Structures are given as structure tokens and as C-alpha cells.
Amino acid sequence: MQPYASHTRALRVPTLGGVVGLMVLVLWVKPAMSGLIDVPSGQPLSFMEYISEAEGKLVRFRFLTPEIGEGYDYMTVFPDFQHLCDTQVVPVLSANGLKPEQIVLSMSSAEVEFGQDDPEILQFFEVFRPENGACIWEEF
């Protein structure tokens, strides 16, 4: 059994304008979704990848944040995780009827293949559990 899904999945993705569209997210390949997402810190942030693991019990949403470590430290971007989970991830999960037990969000200063480590690339991670349409932070 593979630790994560290796297939293409069509997900309904609410857009920033409030219109629900259909976006194909391709695992291991940068998806067609583009554009910056507004977050409390004001840092430039864009969607990079969606990964489903453990038969959908764990989902990962990866974000590109090229300025972390350069003007945006962990404490500055920490509120961005809750904002992303509540405003971006929960609507996507809901629109697609997905009910994971755990949500992992990551921010990366550069694109790096999932599962690979590069000491030159800074990454931050946070874990949440979905509950009643909200994200509950799980300190790990």
C-alpha cells in the first residue's frame, strides 16, 4: 500500500470571488491553481499541492511562501495557518464531501518534492483536526 494517493482527483475549489469552480489537482505535479492567497501576515503565499494519505484520513495542503525566513519568521506566519485552514481548506473539504481526521498544512520557501528534505529550503508545518466546520489546532 502506498503511503499517499497517486492519482488525479477533481476537487471543487471555492475561488476567492466566492464562485465554486472545478479544479483538477494533480499529485506530484504543480496544479493549475495560481495566484496569491491573502493571509494575515501579508506574506506572498500560493497553493502548491494537495495530497491525500491513509485512504483520505489525512490530507495535506502545501503552500509556497518564498519569503519565510526573510522578513517572515515562524511567529509572524503562525496565524496564517489557522486562516488558511478555516478559509481555504475547510471549504474545499466541504465542497467535496471529504472528512479527514487530520489536516497537515505546510509552508515552503521554495518548491521541493514531497517527502524530500533540502537544508537550503525552510519549511513550516502545522496540524489541525476538522471539527464542526472549523479547524482545531493540534500541537505536536
Question: What does it look like?
Answer:
The protein has 140 residues and is α+β, with helices and mostly antiparallel strands. It has one helix and seven strands. The chain has one helix spanning 74-95; strands spanning 9-14, 20-25, 46-53, 58-64, 102-108, 123-131, 134-138. The radius of gyration is 14 Å and the shape is globular. The model is unreliable at 1-10 and 15-33 (pLDDT under 50).
* Uncertain runs: 1-10, 15-33
Number of strands: 7
Secondary structural class: alpha+beta
| Largest sheet: spatial strand order | 3-4-5-6-7
Question: How large is the count of helical segments?
Answer: 1
The residue-averaged pLDDT reads 81
Share of β-strand residues: 25-35%
Rg value: 14 Å
Helix content: 10-25%
Q: Largest sheet at a glance?
A: 5 strands, mixed
Measure the end-to-end span: 26 Å
Any idea what the shape is?
globular
H and E string: EEEEHEEE
Helix-strand layout with pairing:
Layout: E1 9-14, E2 20-25, E3 46-53, E4 58-64, H1 74-95, E5 102-108, E6 123-131, E7 134-138
Parallel strand pairs: 4-5
Antiparallel strand pairs: 1-2, 3-4, 5-6, 6-7
